[in-house]
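Exercise 7. Predict the joint structure of the components listed below.
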Amino acid sequence: MKQSFLFTKTRRDAPTDEVSRNAKLLIRGGFIHKEMAGVYSYLPLGLRVLNKVVGIIREEMNALGGQEVYLSALQDREVWEKTGRWDERAVDSWFKTELKNGAEAGLAFTHEEPITAMMRGHISSYKDLPKYPYQFQVKFRNETRARSGLIRGREFLMKDLYSFSRNETEHQAFYEKIKQAYHTIFARIGLGEKTVLTFASGGSFSKYSHEFQTLCAAGEDTIHLCDKCRIAVNSEIISEHTACPQCGNEKLTQEKAVEVGNIFTLGTKFSDALNLKYRNEVGKETSVFMGSYGIGPGRAMGVAVELFADEKGIVWPKSIAPFAVHLISLASSTKVKKEADALYEKLQKEDIEVLYDDRDARAGEKFADADLIGIPLRAVVSDKTPVGKVEIKARLTVVGQERTSDSARIISHAELLKMVSGK
Amino acid sequence: MKQSFLFTKTRRDAPTDEVSRNAKLLIRGGFIHKEMAGVYSYLPLGLRVLNKVVGIIREEMNALGGQEVYLSALQDREVWEKTGRWDERAVDSWFKTELKNGAEAGLAFTHEEPITAMMRGHISSYKDLPKYPYQFQVKFRNETRARSGLIRGREFLMKDLYSFSRNETEHQAFYEKIKQAYHTIFARIGLGEKTVLTFASGGSFSKYSHEFQTLCAAGEDTIHLCDKCRIAVNSEIISEHTACPQCGNEKLTQEKAVEVGNIFTLGTKFSDALNLKYRNEVGKETSVFMGSYGIGPGRAMGVAVELFADEKGIVWPKSIAPFAVHLISLASSTKVKKEADALYEKLQKEDIEVLYDDRDARAGEKFADADLIGIPLRAVVSDKTPVGKVEIKARLTVVGQERTSDSARIISHAELLKMVSGK
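Solution:
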């Protein structure tokens, strides 16, 4: 994409009421726009990043046998009354609204109730199980405070998968598989090394549930980390479980973290309340055994900004960067400009995602924007680069917990193509 | 996809409170689930169709220079007060809700106000224009009645593009281009021959706006069609404009129709109210000239069902069918079953979208389901089909306004592959 075509502009300052680092940088870079506290719109660059995160999650959910659906935001009061969660004393984060006939409707903050009710039409026998519907869907939560940018939204995209199994054994096998899939997802997104499995309170059907917490100074959660196992206990249950649940280590260290995912054994709580039953192998009516599994793609994007940004701007992990290459033309002559144009066309032709800064602007402005936007690889064509060559420089690269920045070097167009196409 | 894997079941009867043909068939086929009147969830088959429609629209919007964004549903009262549209006497279809601090928020029924406000951060000079952001986003409209299935929803997906131009001339050129793009889109979706450009009331900045109306008995609109030009006048303005605006023909025929798209010249109504200005070529502050352009992908899907379904079920146009082929195994022996499996694998390998009915069910049930689901091509492997061959039969095919149904015939696997891959 040509930068002269992109409608968004970078800006020097974030809105004064914005306190979180991720929102400040994402707004300055033109990735998102703040509509109100905790409510953001995605602009072209931001939507590209969000779609990359979504794409990675989708692949992993499909690989597990997930089937994508899209449930409504508007919710029928009746369904939620069956589990007691319509009541605002039980759930204090509802946004509610009113139909023309005066009936109340809610905006989904999660989807256990409607999906359980919906599955009644599709599950009747043990042969229909297990099943794993999932969706990417906007949730609404009436948060009292929303000052963490994409990390805590009043309206935010969520991937939620629900598992419907015959029994606890079948459920548990899937629960372990999704645990692994979540590790894979966070590794692919670039958050793997900072993200730890965290034990949280269970419920009637399991001792624990699990969160995936990314260690991050901007986190609103506190977790208690076992340095040996790299697993943690959340603050909710630390008073009861003061040691590492895996190795028994009692030296846990407190860390700030962001909950980027959670997995939960629901058991038959929802299927009992909403009458989701199946006939088992001997014809006996049995409640379906359920689980739920969430990831916030926008939140993961916000955390990536918090973790990897430097004083100059955002540094995207390769897998979720809006573009693979930021091609910058500093041409003062038509000849050099043509050379940059030709390289852009070549990259486009090879399906390489390239943002091409073809604007009529100063070199300093272009470099500052490139640093702010944070595309992993910068490629410059200028009066100084020899014909057929380009000067490349990596944006800070995250290697383990160290960061290295390649110094600039000159390579041929062919080498650049090879480098970014991975061929 | 194997049908044994698909979690949805077809059903003999639609919910008794469902009156529209499209909702009845889509629910029976397992494409959608009714949450409440005018509020539907998309199940895997339905989401596949919806995504096909979205994909076609996206391609055409990108070809016009559109840039995809995703704006929030939750709306800030303040922005809407500037245009007077917060007031429920001006807009009676708001869903409103309340933040924890008592402030009111709305759920977007459209996005002119927030996108105009947002663009203030990105437009300042004539060099920044024209620009065409668009989105696929869920709209909320508090309809009094919602009995037409996907044709009139309280919550529904919409593609809305907004044009920001320097002046009326530049706007008008784009307006004509999008008119053509809409014809292309409806043709590609399979609604082209039934969809007519319809003149509607304009506003302060243009004599007319335009609707794209699909002739359909289930339509809630009445249009006045000129048979010569195949353009129409909507009932809103027919009293003032009794003749065809193109050829002057006064013999217009009344037809029921569904509004599947609309395009509108907004002029400077929103940019004036929300202070979206740019400096023109001579440095003068000028209001941006705007237009808005909507299509409801779910509504288009509902109309396709209304138009093409027969007494046996849905008949999808090829371009938006959930799968290209419905492969049905009627094998009674392991040998034939293996043959069907092998053909399925072969189709999958060629990236052909195939729904494979591998279920343990009677032939009659499988055929009835195939007719209900409406995939354009049915391919049967049975004890009767010779080795390496398959029996194919087209679901009713829409040719012009006539429908033809190929009778079944036997072809080789290679021929089938060639037929569906289009190679």
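Discussion. The two ends of chain A are 22 Å apart (CA to CA).
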